[in-house]
């Protein structure tokens, strides 16, 4: 197995570059094939639940081989998997952490200043807490936009207005998530979100392309 390597991993935090989170792919069914054909995705989160740690490691390793150099690669939840991959010289840009995962301060200490760290939120209280971590995290995920069959959050759906309120409250970029489809893109981007995370839409149509100004968000998958 060949690997995608980088001597410096992601230097985006150190360089102060703007992260492109606009078209955010969260893996679901057929993750490898979906990512391989997702040429318009700007950020890829490797998520597969339930999954054994070794299987997540191997899946992430395989996905790292096929992504483009300009696509971000994040590991869901598992800082240890991200660390192990980076130790092998495999390009992993960072992690996305949930509220019950390793504390973000510890994740930052382990992964270093160059890593990208996202944090799940979805309520005003959670966003306010995330604001206290604005110097540690790079973005937050906010959801669910609407009830999602791929992840149970036990939080009420935000809808457009709820998403807008969290964007206005947040001190870091916001990625919307939760049963989102390309047709939702224009209205969501108008709220000020920096990105839209989709699971099933990419499974149905890996090559989908969304833009903030498109009438139908590149087609409803």
TrEMBL record:
2-[(2R,5Z)-2-carboxy-4-methylthiazol-5(2H)-ylidene]ethyl phosphate binds at residues 148-150. Its EC number is 2.5.1.3. 4-amino-2-methyl-5-(diphosphooxymethyl)pyrimidine binds at residues 45-49, 76, 120, 151. It catalyses: 4-methyl-5-(2-phosphooxyethyl)-thiazole + 4-amino-2-methyl-5-(diphosphooxymethyl)pyrimidine + H(+) = thiamine phosphate + diphosphate; 2-[(2R,5Z)-2-carboxy-4-methylthiazol-5(2H)-ylidene]ethyl phosphate + 4-amino-2-methyl-5-(diphosphooxymethyl)pyrimidine + 2 H(+) = thiamine phosphate + CO2 + diphosphate; 2-(2-carboxy-4-methylthiazol-5-yl)ethyl phosphate + 4-amino-2-methyl-5-(diphosphooxymethyl)pyrimidine + 2 H(+) = thiamine phosphate + CO2 + diphosphate. The keyword Transferase applies. It is an enzyme of class 2 (transferase). It holds the Pfam family TMP-TENI. Condenses 4-methyl-5-(beta-hydroxyethyl)thiazole monophosphate (THZ-P) and 2-methyl-4-amino-5-hydroxymethyl pyrimidine pyrophosphate (HMP-PP) to form thiamine monophosphate (TMP). Gene3D superfamilies: Aldolase class I. One of its GO terms (molecular function) is thiamine-phosphate diphosphorylase activity. NCBIfam families: PRK00043.3-4. This is Thiamine-phosphate synthase. Mg(2+) binds at residues 77, 101. InterPro entries: Aldolase_TIM (IPR013785), ThiamineP_synth_sf (IPR036206), ThiamineP_synth_TenI (IPR022998), TMP_synthase (IPR034291). Residues 33-201 form the Thiamine phosphate synthase/TenI domain. Belongs to the thiamine-phosphate synthase family. Transmembrane segments: none annotated. Keywords: Magnesium, Metal-binding, Thiamine biosynthesis, Transferase. Binds 1 Mg(2+) ion per subunit. Pathway: Cofactor biosynthesis; thiamine diphosphate biosynthesis; thiamine phosphate from 4-amino-2-methyl-5-diphosphomethylpyrimidine and 4-methyl-5-(2-phosphoethyl)-thiazole: step 1/1. The gene is thiE. It comes from the Bacteria.
């Amino acid at each position: 197995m060949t690997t995608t390597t980088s001597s410096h991993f992601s230097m985006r935090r150190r360089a102060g570059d703007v992260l492109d989170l606009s078209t955010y792919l969260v893996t679901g069914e057929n993750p490898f094939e979906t990512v391989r054909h997702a040429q318009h995705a700007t950020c890829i989160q490797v998520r597969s639940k339930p999954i054994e740690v070794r299987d997540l490691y191997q899946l992430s390793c395989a996905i790292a081989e096929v992504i483009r150099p300009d696509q971000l690669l994040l590991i869901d939840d598992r800082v240890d998997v991200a660390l192990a991959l980076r130790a092998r010289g495999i390009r992993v840009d960072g992690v996305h952490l949930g509220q019950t995962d390793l504390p973000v301060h510890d994740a930052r200490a382990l992964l270093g200043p160059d890593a990208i760290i996202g944090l799940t939120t979805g309520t005003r209280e959670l966003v306010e807490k995330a604001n206290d971590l604005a110097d540690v995290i790079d973005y937050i995920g906010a959801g669910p936009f609407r009830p999602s069959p791929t992840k149970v959050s036990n939080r009420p759906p935000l809808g457009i207005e709820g998403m807008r309120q969290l964007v206005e409250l947040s001190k870091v970029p916001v990625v919307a998530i939760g049963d989102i489809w390309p047709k939702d893109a224009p209205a969501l981007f108008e709220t000020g979100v920096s990105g839209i995370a989709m699971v099933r839409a990419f499974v149905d149509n890996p090559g989908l392309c969304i833009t903030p100004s498109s009438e139908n968000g590149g087609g409803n998958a």
